[in-house]
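dude i think i finally got it to work??
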Amino acid sequence: MNCEWCGAENVLQTHNDVYWELPDGTRAVQIKKTPCVKCPSCGMEYQTEETVEEIEVQLMLINLKQVPESLTFEELMKTPRHLKRNYFDFLR
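look at this
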């Protein structure tokens, strides 16, 4: 895997903490231990498109009023969904 910013080949798969705005725009939450890519060459830390999509879909399908100010990525992904899937994504 290459760094999406500088193209270096020596990226690391690791975790970091991120802040995410909820889909309803009411607030942001901290998501700890989120999978990320870290590039030792340019110093960038970022989430892959797959991780971003996982977070965004999960946040669309859960009760946002029950989401605490801070939780881990694993806790977010284990939060029970109101819907089984994202019915608004017409490409799937």
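The first strand starts at residue 12 and ends at 21.
im so relieved honestly
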